Amino acid sequence: MEKKWEEMTPEERQEVLIQRWLSPKDPQGENLKFKTPEAEAEYKARVQRLVDAIQLKKVPDRVPVLPLPNMFPVYYYGITVQEAMYDYEKCFAAFKKFVLDFQPDATMGCMGPGPGRFYDLVDYKVYRWPGHGVGPNQCYQAVEDEYMKADEYDALVTDPTYYFLTVYFPRAFGSLKGLSLLSPPTYVLEFYPTFSAVHFIPFALPPVQEALKVMAEAGAEVLKWIQGVVGWNLEIMASGFPLLAGGGCKAPFDTVGDTLRGTKGIIIDMYRQPEKVLKAVEALVPIMIKMGSEAAKQNGVPLVFMPLHKGADGFMSDQQFKTFYWPTLKKVILGLIEEGCIPFLVAEGGFNSRLEVIKDLPKGKVVWMFDQTDMAQAKKTLGDSACIAGNVPTDLLAVGTPEQVKEYVKKLIDTCADGGGFILTNGAFFDEAKPENVKTMVEFAKEYGVYR
Amino acid sequence: MDLVEAIADLREEEALKIVKDRLSAGEDPLKILEEARQGLEIVGNRFASGEYFIPDLIYSGEIMKQITEIVKPLISQTTQVKKLGKVVIGTVAGDIHDIGKNIVVFMLEVNGFEVYDLGVDVPPERFVEKIKETGAPILGLSGFLTLAFDSMKRTIEALKEAGLRDKVKVMIGGGQVTDEVRKYTGADAYGKDAMAAVSLAKAWVGAS
Q1: pLDDT 10s digits, A401-436
Q2: Is the CB of B146 less than 8 angstroms away from the CB of A398?
Q3: pLDDT for the residue A1
């Protein structure tokens, strides 16, 4: 008789998720049919290689190699970003070609460009995308703003869901302004039936109905797109390539800083109203844990992707990092581990001054992907406790030569791979790059990274 | 109470109170602004020495903004302060990232440069126009994305086509910018951080 999830230890939960990662199912719940026995063997070897590198219990057969692109597959395939965002089939074909040509040990999937028509329908204010503020062949870019005002921390903390739905959504999505009129669902109680009834009045108001109509249409568009994504995932897995991440979430400080207040807003708040910032990041901890772990469990892949932004070197002092950034990030990491997940922490920028602080985590449970951090120092400080990954520079992939890439990869493996616990990746997700450089990074690392 | 020190130590309320008190006591607003600038200069120095970080810089800018708002309406004539030199700067076409660029602007300004900040997503021709208009001998190009490398290259080519290349020193910087990128774009120099931008600019105007 199988144990229930609630009764399992975190180790048992992780084992369940790893087993599901090793033996993926199709949508009917049957074992996925691989294209060839070789594809199946390769798939399992790839997952095992990553698991070995992460858990630090065993040295893998070779250093896992993950070229992690942003829009590169789109350029490489010869279509524009705009085409990839609006013609889903072309997008899927581009990302498939990338995987088949570059043979990564796992893939972040084909979701990067996303469903363009959704952004149009909801009038997404948080991004500019091709045809809406940036050129046809450029990646979408985030527009920082104070989507949450300085005096709204109490409203956020009291009821984050209601705040997001009725304050954040109307500001983030031009077509959803009507949602600001909704009543809190938590007012609908067993009290007097009439009191429940009155909270449905907003649904009769034209702005709300307009918003709901847009949401239904936008949702249908995303559903159409995600069906293609699921098909893509199954085909890629059947060809021998595991998915890298099952879900994603953010550091609570970044959720407030990137999503709600903007860089300047949250920085000023750290000085003017530090207590409010601390309460807000604390309130977001369980939400972030749930966001990451539920998706990972649903998708049967234990890794949870966590891009980290405002904790980088220079972006705050060590004291601010220890006060505002790390405590709640650590809680999210530990919460994910508790659920059997493996946080895949993408430390963008440099993390040199943070290494001593972030090593305070259980052994073999996370991956730190570094961008511009000193990798020798990272290996020295974290090598005994965590798998590290990174840091082939994107500028080198864009303007360097294959010889230079080879040299860099060799040095990186010499520095970091000793004893396992290392995954070779680029430092930041790349758009423009010379295909021969990406190819060299992958092929040379696979050859040179074999443990003997 | 010392305004320079209050700003340098980021004591917002105290700094604003000093400004208001001294204005109501009839003090020359220009003198107050000059002291505020000295406070920011200390902030800049502390940032350069690694004692202060980006948040301190941004917060000091916010304090300065409020002081300027209080003081500005009281200033009748504009006085010319002697500047080290002019710099035109902006984030290149296709890229809308500006945190790093804003820090460079801040550091150049507190170090005595007259900075023309063109903002983000700036097409090559606008840089060229501004260089023509101001006669600035220095151009700073910022970019965070790899796509910015090509925009930087195109901007420098546009400068060449306008016959201005030998009159202007070009420095580039941003997230993934290295010496390899400098070679690719044809810039004169690249800087890893805002302090590098200040030293380059000072060297180019012969002020270092």
Answers
A1: 999 999 999 999 999 999 999 999 999 999 999 999
A2: yes
A3: 56
Instruction: Examine residue A161 and state whether it is found in any structural domain, yes or no.
Output: yes
Q: Does A130 touch chain B (CB under 8 A)?
A: no
Q: At A446, which CATH number?
A: 3.20.20.210
CA distance B159 to chain A (A): 22
Cα B136 to Cα B116: distance, rounded to the nearest angstrom: 9
Q: Does B58 touch chain A (CB under 8 A)?
A: yes
Is A57 in the same domain as A88?
Answer: no
Distance from CA of B143 to the nearest CA of A (A): 12
**Preferred mutation among B54, B102, B106 to probe A, highest tally of A CBs within 10 A:** B54
Q: Find the mean pLDDT for residues A303-330.
A: 97
Tell me whether residues B175 and A138 touch, CB distance under 8 A: no
Q: What's residue A432's pLDDT? A: 92
Name the residue range of residue A395's domain: 1-68+244-452
AA identity, residue A249? C
Q: Does residue B69 sit in the same domain as residue B106?
A: no
Task: Return the CATH number at B175.
Answer: 3.40.50.280
Q: How many domains does chain A have?
A: 2
**DSSP state for residue A164 in the 8-state scheme:** I
The predicted complex's ipTM stands at 0.88
A211 and A179 housed in the same domain: yes
**pLDDT at position B85 over 60:** yes
Strand partners, A247: A304
3-class DSSP assignment, residue A50: helix
Separation in Å, CA of A393 to nearest CA in chain B: 8
Partner-chain residue, chosen from A317, A398, A430, that has the shortest CB–CB distance to B53: A317
Residues B162-199 as b/e (b if ≥16 CB within 10 A, e otherwise) read bebbeebbbbbbbbbbbebbbebbbbbbbbeebbbbbe
Q: Which pLDDT does position A370 carry in this prediction? A: 98
Strands B138-142 and B85-91: parallel
Examine the fold and report which residue of B26, B46, B74 is the final residue of a domain before the chain moves on. B74
Sheet holding A127-130, edge to edge: A133-134, A127-130, A141-142
- Angle, CA B44 vertex, CA B41 and CA B45 arms, to 5°: 90
Residue type, A123: D
B179 to A151, B183, B184, B188: CA distances (angstroms): 44, 6, 9, 10
Last residue of a domain, one of B31, B53, B74: B74
The answer to whether residues A413 and A424 touch, using CB atoms and an 8 Å cutoff, is yes
**B188, part of any domain:** yes
Q: In this structure, are A204 and A334 located in the same domain?
A: no
Residues 163-202 of A with CB under 8 A from B: none
Q: How far apart are CA B185 and CA B71, in angstroms?
A: 43
Q: Does any domain span residue A73?
A: no
Domain limit, last residue, from A208, A240, A272: A240
In tens, the pLDDT along A255-268 reads 999 999 999 999 99
Neighbouring C-beta atoms of residue A437, cutoff 10 Å: 22
Over the stretch A180-212, which tens digit does the pLDDT of each residue have?
999 999 999 998 899 999 999 999 999 999 999
Question: Beta strand A141-142 with A127-130: parallel, antiparallel or unpaired?
Answer: antiparallel
Q: Are B63 and B37 in contact (CB under 8 A)?
A: no
User: pLDDT tens-digit profile of A220-239?
Assistant: 999 999 999 999 999 999 99
Judge whether A88 and A225 are in contact, CB under 8 Å.
Answer: yes
* Size of chain A in residues: 452
